[in-house]
Write a structure and sequence with these properties.
It is a single chain. It contains no helices and ten strands. The mean pLDDT is 92. By secondary structure, the chain is mostly beta strands. A hairpin with a 4-residue loop joins strand 2 and strand 3. The chain has strands spanning 11-14, 23-30, 35-38, 43-48, 58-63, 66-67, 71-74, 81-82, 84-89, 92-97. The chain has a six-stranded antiparallel β-sheet with strand order 6-3-2-1-7-8, with no helix packed on it. Strands 4-5 form a two-stranded antiparallel ribbon. Part of the 50S ribosomal subunit. Pfam families: KOW, ribosomal_L24. One of two assembly initiator proteins, it binds directly to the 5'-end of the 23S rRNA, where it nucleates assembly of the 50S subunit. One of the proteins that surrounds the polypeptide exit tunnel on the outside of the subunit. Belongs to the universal ribosomal protein uL24 family.
Length: 106
């Protein structure tokens, strides 16, 4: 399995869909499903009927998973979307932003 290019806690930019251009931090990554959950992005609403546990009912809002291919890592320098490359520095494998050449972690 290839190394993960996007990890939990990374800052990402949405490339397509209703939230195109928005940025957020990754809350959860689901590599087997190819999905990702980003805070404040792709917010879905569910209308809930009143129940004994929730007598008020109402609208539940939550971040729904979206395809990893719809997001790109935000460049640490300017916040614009960038691809990721892996390099070895001091015998350690680190992620590097292709646009600026800055290390993302490490």
């Amino acid at each position: 399995m290839a190394a993960a290019k996007i990890k939990k806690g990374d800052s990402v930019v949405v490339l397509s869909g209703k939230d195109k251009g928005k940025t957020g931090t990754v809350a959860k990554v689901m590599p087997k499903d190819g999905k990702i959950v980003v805070e404040g992005v792709n917010v879905a609403a569910r209308h809930r009927k009143p129940t004994q546990q929730n007598p008020q009912g109402g609208i539940d809002r939550f971040e729904a998973p979206m395809a990893i291919s719809k997001v790109a890592l935000a460049d640490p320098k300017d916040g614009k979307p960038t691809r990721v490359r892996f390099e070895e520095k001091d015998g350690k494998k680190v992620r590097v932003a292709v646009k600026s050449g800055e290390t993302i972690d490490g």
